[in-house]
C-alpha cells in the first residue's frame, strides 16, 4: 500500500500506516551504528570522556545557579517567597530530589536526548504540589490536527498512559518541528562514532599483548592442534598485565612486526581532534574540558564569560520560558516569572568588580547593601541609603541657576 502526498500533509489526517511506519523506522534507528561500526546512543556517547565532561559541566553549572520565582512590581521585582511554587524551584521539587539534582537531570536529558520531561502534580485550585521527572525514552509526543500536543508515557509495565498537556513540563533543545528537540548525537553521529572507535582501538591495542600491528608467519601450514593452542595461549596471556609474559610459538611460527606505531597512525591526534569536535558541538570552550593547548592567561577569563553568555544562557532561557508556559497559569504569568541568578558567574576579577560597583554607587544606582548582596555578604542597618556627589545637580536645576546668574532672562540662551 502506497502513501499519497495528501496523507503525509501535516494539515491532513495521518493514516495508521504512516504512524506504524514511523514507529518502525524510529525503532530501527534507535540503535543505529555509525560507519565506524560503533553504536551511537545517548548511553554509549557518555563513554567518550569529552562528551561526559560537556554534559556534566553544562548540567552542573545550570544546577548550581539559584532558581527563583519573582513577582513583578510597578518598579522592579521581588522574590515571591509566599508562592507555593517558590520552594519547589528553589529547594525541593519532589520528595526525593533537591533542586540541584532536578535541574541537572533534566538539563542532561536535553543535552543527550533533546528533551526533558516532568509530571506536574497539581492540587486544589491548580496549585503545583510536585514536579516529578520522567524518563525521556518512554515519552511519545505527537501534534494533533488542531496543533495541540499529545503526550503518551509508557509505565514500567509497558502500558502507555496519556498525560494532559497542562500536567507536563516539556523542555526542548534545538527543535526543527517545534514539537520535540534534537541533539548533536542525532546529526553528528559520525563524529561521536569516530571518537568511540578511537577509544576502542586504543583499548584493544592495550588489551592484547601491546605488541602493535603484526603478523605470525609460518613456513607451511599450521596444524589444527597447534592453532588451537596458540589461540588459547594468546587469549590467556593477553592484556596489559601480561605484556612481558612469553608466548610459545610452535612449528616454526615467527612473529613479524609491521613496524607501525600508534603515533604513525596519528592515533593521539585523532583522539585529540575528536575531543575538540565534541566540545564544538556543545559550544564548550576547550579549556573547560581539559584541552589547554590554545589557552592563555589572557584569554581564559574572556572564554569563561563567553561560556556563560553563549552556552549557559540559552539553556537558562529554555528553562525559564518552559516554566512560564507549562507550570504557571495564564493569570499567574501576568505577575510572576522564574529566573536563574547569574550574578556569581558573570562577576569578573576583584579589580573589575570594584570599579563597576564604585561607578554605580557613585551615581546612586546602587546602595552599599545592594553591593553586599551581589557579593553574597551580610548587609547592615542603614546600608540602603544611596548617595550622589554633592557638586552634581539635576539638569533642570542647573538651567535655572544659569538663568538666574544671567540676570533672569532666558532669551537667547
From TrEMBL:
Pfam family, one: Phage_portal
Alphabetical list of InterPro entries matching this protein: Phage/GTA_portal (IPR006944), Portal_HK97 (IPR006427)
Protein name: Phage portal protein
